[in-house]
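As a warm-up, study this chain.
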Amino acid sequence: MSGIYDSILDTIGNTPVVRLSRINDGAASLYAKIEAFNPGGSVKDRLAAAVIEEAERSGALQPGQTVIEATSGNTGIGLAMVCARKGYPLVIVMPENASLERRKLMRFFGAKVVLTPAVERGSGMLAKAIEIAETHGWFLCRQFETPVNADIHARTTAREILTAFRDRPLDYWVTGTGTGGTLAGVARVLKRERPETRIIVCEPDNSALLSSGISQSFDERGLPTRTHTRFRPHPIQGWSPDFIPQIVGNALTDDLVDEILPVSGDSALEAARRLATEEGILSGISGGATLAGALEIARRAGQGQNVLCMLPDTGERYLSTILFDHIREEMSPAEEAISRSTPGYRFDRPPSFALSSSPAGEIRISQSAQFFVDEAIHDPEHRVVMFALTWCEFCWTVRKLFEAAGIAYRSIDIDTPEFQKNGMDGEVRKALRARIGSPTIPQVFVGGEHVGGCTDTLAAWRDGSLAARLAFVGASYTPGACANPESLLPQWVQAKA
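Now compare it with the structure written out below.
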């Protein structure tokens, strides 16, 4: 892309097709359409923009009306981006076992996320979304049934594929299916304009709903009347909910699918990991699953054949899932060996800089800094005082504890520009060190009494001494809150513990 755009929504679509050379061990040429290049990171950006814009045109969505949808994640992220740009409140309903990154991304865009029990599966999240929409009069996107879902892919994704392969044959197009919009929209265009292209749909091998031949029924509200009898839990988020969506069922009925290919969870994970390490492309589990199917097709197809697969999203929203469970946070033995191969900047050596070792009595401290520290510690309006740094992870940890425990406090952030004027930040640190004997930040005081640094404060909350001190000085707090305060520490610290 190049040029200037009026809106982030104008950058949706026109995603690249990339040849996969290192990972491909088949005779056919293998290509991938990388939907992570959409601004929201997935193929669902196309649907999100289209369904909102169509609802605006039809009058189904009024200015300021709340939008709601049931999704395992990518549609929700796309909708959160679109609604943020257009100014609509958004509520997403999703199962509790969807990745943490997806929840956080949606909330970061300003959406609210309502979780449903994992045991209720996809049909449970859908029923909850319908229930909430009907109760509050909110606009429900209905991604599993709206014609807009397939139409946008017919107008955009399919046309982009035809353009990419305008000078060469496209023998196989391989995709997975969740709602079925990508499948139905692209397949109906290919069947019409490139009838030689075989449409391959992948599904989890242990949850083979499409190949079962068992149809799905729906009630008048669009809810599945039952969980499909062949559904089993699987690791491929975004694929195969516990029912066959109406769009998918219609694609099968209309003979848009030439082959249904089962893919194992293990092969999906392996393919996604290989895609990153061999091709430099970051994709999620569903992309790995589609790639695994495409690799099989490429092995099966002959020389000169072309295979295109869809990679629907980026792998960054799977960091908390099984896809990354083999990735260590701490250094591996090989990485430690590299560190030890040179003498400096190692954890088993003194730091490259040293804090002053002068006894506290030899430190020259300005009277104004001493007065400021004394006055702050004994501030009658703030029983809890923390000397902190704005961007220190350990200060963030203490702040999170205080917020979780309902503790009102004053944070004196000595790295702000005001304190840096005339070197007051350094003077305050010297005054603190003279008082408590420690140069580290944060430092917490309750009612004028020193509690300690970050880990000291966490330990005091765990053993009850901090609560007792708060009660003694009349500071309010929530008893029993944050039973495991060490869980608030940065992840890299917890990994070392």
